[in-house]
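Narrative of activities, Objective 1.

The group set out to show that a structural description can be obtained from nothing but a protein's sequence at a throughput compatible with the screening campaign. Below is one input-output pair from the validation batch, recorded exactly as produced.
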Amino acid sequence: MRRVIAPTQEMSNAMIIGYARVSTGEQRLDLQIQALEHAGCDQIFTDHGQSGSRFGREGLGGALEALTPGCTLVVWRLDRLGRSLSGLVALLEQLGERDVDFLSITESINTASSGGKLMFHMMAALAEFERSLISERTRAGMAAAKANGKSLGRPRILTNDQLISARHAIDVMNLSPSKVSAALNVSSRTLSRHLEKMSV
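Output recorded for this entry:
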């Protein structure tokens, strides 16, 4: 995490907090930081080499922690905040509940304006539609699998033959569970759990 404080801004309770992110170590943050400084950010938090698929990032966490009621969170582009539409909507909803505004420079999304609020509601509707489609496809897939006589859930990691061989190797050949699990390319805990189920 890196934090930049613009010296020309007078610090106050209603600060403008910037956030920048790049996915790989080779990418640079300069363009985003310049845009955020131009937008008048008092503080800028960054994540370098961090994926946008998850929201548990150190720099983002710092930015969210610095926000207080009346503040504004600014990003250069929406996907710098995150790549999951439902995750973005959930995060923006949390900001709204905290009385924090949001601004995306490139997309001109500003929740302090009526147009920005409309855009956010459209994003929320799209996220809900996306969740409905995923749920519908999941149910359809499960119904099709059940109709074809397929068992649902994750496939078994170890076969019965592998478990029998593992039991023989441990009990008869006195091999350690760690060596047997390594040979089967599973963890010792996984092997132990499957052997316990086998003996029930």
